Amino acid sequence: MTDNEKLAELLYPDVRLTIDDLEKKYPKRNLDEKAEVCRFAPSPTGRMHMGNLFASFVPERFAHQSNGVFILRIEDTDDKRAIDDGINLIMQDLKEYNYKVDEGPNSGGEYGPYIQSQRKEIYHTVAKYLVSIGRAYPCFCSEDDLTHMREHQEHKKERIGYYGRYAKCRNLTYVEVKAHIDNGDKWVLRLKSMGDFNKKIVFKDLIKGTIELPENDIDQVLVKSDGIPPYAFAHVCDDHFMRVTIVTRDDSYISSVPYHLELWDACRFEKPKFAHLLPLNKKDGEVVRKLSKRKDPEAAVAFYHEKGIPTEAVKLYFATLLNSNFDGWFLQNQDKDYNDFTFSFNKMSTSGGSLFDIEKLLNISKNYLSRLKAEEVFANLDNWSKEFDNEFNQLIKQYRDYTISVLNIEREQKKPRKDFACYSEIKKNIWYMYDELFSDVDFDFSFLKHEEDARKIVSTYLSDFFDINDDKETWFNKIKELTEKMGYNTNMKEYKENPDEFRGSIADISNVIRVSLTTKLTTPDLFEIIKLLGNERVCERFKRICG
Ligand code: GLU
After folding, report:
1. Which residues does 278 contact at the CB level (< 8 Å), separation at least 6?
2. What are phi and psi of 90, to 5 degrees?
3. Are 121 and 17 in contact (CB under 8 A)?
4. Pocket flag, ligand 1, residue 75 (CB < 6 Å)
5. Distance from the CA of 46 to the center of ligand 1, in angstroms?
6. Residue 135 beta carbon below 6 angstroms from any ligand 1 atom
7. How far apart, in Å, are the Cα atoms of 4 and each of 9, 56, 134, 422?
8. Any idea what the Cα angle at residue 112 is, between residues 107 and 113, rounded to 5°?
9. What φ, ψ does residue 69 adopt, rounded to 5°?
10. Does residue 262 have its Cβ closer than 6 Å to ligand 1?
11. Measuring CA to CA, which residue among 5, 31, 30, 28 is closest to residue 18?
12. Rounded Cα distance, 498 and 491, in Å
């Protein structure tokens, strides 16, 4: 046994697995050459926000579009950040967004456990291996020692960190280490770095391209005194033994890549590809800043749930953020799904970040909703209102088929109406179709030059023209006749040229009818509204106006 092997045994006497055992237990995946294994690795800190929802969309897409594997891994080694129920909240959000997690805490998989706090044995096995090959050592420096070192470095204007001559425990002999251990001294495990800060390391990021940074020469902590590894060492072990092929994560990690690469090399693991994602930004007046959980309500996933913004629309928006050429493709392929598009890293913006624009998202949502079948809109509206507007939920369920017909007005046509961007906006568009909501309403005819005409227009229409059985053409011709009878102008062009010469126009006449039936000046097709309301209710509503 070498001294290093003896040291490994001394530090990790209970670890019986070897690195070879792990290699066998988590073998290379039997996948297509092009298939990517990607992971979303959040810390369980609560409900998701748009930043990490987008960060999960990216690996999900690259994994699934290549027939690969999408993993959910929970990074809960940092206790201070974890909240009770944090894991469930993340899984709930991913489920709501209909992400298919192939492997994860609740999804099974041969490469688990998928929660870091349950993977201690793996980390310790790799740690023991690193000690045995001389690439890791125990450090017994106290907090005081380290503070003292830092102050000294600051004073001397030197780089901060445990490196070079500051790495006091790096050369302790086996005998010295044994004395500390026998004494019960606390220790952390550090990497024995071979890097040279004056040299550069060059690596390729799938999004940002070639990056050059100084090599790492700091003997970073691999395992803390409580036996738990910080992020860097844990993710290297996990990504290797989960056989991840692309590491997608926030670009705040980019400066640590030299250290991570050194770890991969020290462990003799094959390196994955990296894709560092730019943050989602927001234009706030003249400034562009990071979308903020604290300042921006639209940053919270809960915001979309409460407003009833369809998750599919959010994902379509993500697709436009992910690849600049998606918009154009989707315009040509309206009937397709974003899943049919092949995303690529080189079509991502490489600097600054992506501008998160809620108005654009809502616009996409309007389009998306306008193309759904009325039955689908109904089902989703039912779900949404069950949670957020029980009174409306009762109504739409009581008049199910009727509601579907209302939602279907001007829907199945080449250019469907785009009245609402989310389920919470539907009621304000269709409430007047329900007598229950139409009982205590005000009518405003002040758009007429002669407001007093309203009653007369309605009563004449009701007595001389209105017939529920008319087809659309007859109906419209009768509106024209009514217009003439009232001394209003049927020719909009002529009217617009000389409005002062006429009492009003045919548009005013239709609007009197529209307002009488709905209180609103803009509605979907009036003829269809009349048909759906039916004779009795139309007459009843007219009589409210003309008595
Ligand atoms: N757990 C890290 C975080 O929440 C993710 C880092 C990674 O994806 O590797 O920031």
Report:
1. 207, 251, 348, 349, 350, 351, 352, 353, 354
2. -65, -45
3. yes
4. yes
5. 14
6. no
7. 9, 41, 6, 63
8. 95
9. -130, 135
10. no
11. 5
12. 11
Specify burial of residue 126 (Cβ count, 10 A radius: 0-12, 13-18, 19+).
buried
Helices (H), 399-547: 400-407, 427-430, 453-460, 472-485, 492-497, 506-518, 526-546
The Å distance, Cα 244 to ligand 1 centre, comes to 14
How remote is the CA of residue 91 from the centroid of ligand 1, in Å? Answer: 16
Q: Are strands 354-355 and 280-284 parallel, antiparallel or unpaired?
A: parallel
What DSSP character marks residue 14?
A: T
Calculate what percentage of the chain has a pLDDT beyond 70: 99
39 lines ligand 1 (CB under 6 A): no
Establish whether residue 260 lines the binding site of ligand 1, counting it when its CB lies within 6 angstroms of any ligand atom.
Answer: no
> Whose CA is closest to atom 10 on ligand 1?
42
Q: What is the pLDDT of residues 426-474, one digit of tens each?
A: 999 999 999 999 999 999 999 999 999 999 999 999 999 999 999 999 9
Q: Indicate whether residue 49 lines ligand 1 (CB < 6 A).
A: no
CA distances in angstroms from 20 to 27, 116, 129, 242, 268, listed in the order given = 10, 20, 10, 15, 12
pLDDT of 82 higher than 80:
no
**Per-residue confidence (pLDDT) for residue 78, from 0 to 100:** 80
Say what the pLDDT of residue 547 is. 79
What is the 253 CA–ligand 1 centroid distance (Å)?
9
What residue spans of 66-103 are helical by DSSP H?
86-96
C-alpha to C-alpha distance for 372 and 411, rounded to whole angstroms: 8
Pairing between β-strand 221-223 and β-strand 188-191 as defined by DSSP bridges: antiparallel
Closest Cα to residue 291, out of 279, 301, 274? 279
Task: Give the number of the atom of ligand 1 that is nearest the alpha carbon of residue 41.
Answer: 8
Task: Return d(Cα 47, Cα 385) in angstroms, integer.
Answer: 22
Q: Which residues contact 490 (CB under 8 A, 6 or more apart)?
A: 480, 483, 484, 505, 506
Structure tokens at 23: 């290699």
Buried b (16+ CB within 10 A) or exposed e, 82-93: beeebbebbbeb
Tokens at 419, concatenated? 């009245």
> What ligand 1 atom has the least distance to the C-alpha of 45?
4
Query: How many A from CA of 249 to the centre of ligand 1?
Result: 6
Tell me, using a 6 A CB cutoff, whether residue 58 lines ligand 1: no
Residue nearest to atom 3 of ligand 1 (CA): 42
Q: Please say if the pLDDT value at position 86 is more than 90.
A: no
Q: How many residues does the chain have?
A: 547
Structure confidence at residue 353 as a pLDDT band (50, 70, 90) = confident
Angular region, 534: left φ>0, alpha ψ -120 to 50, beta rest = left
Best residue among 43, 74, 83, 264 to mutate for probing ligand 1, ranked by most atoms within 8 Å of CB: 43
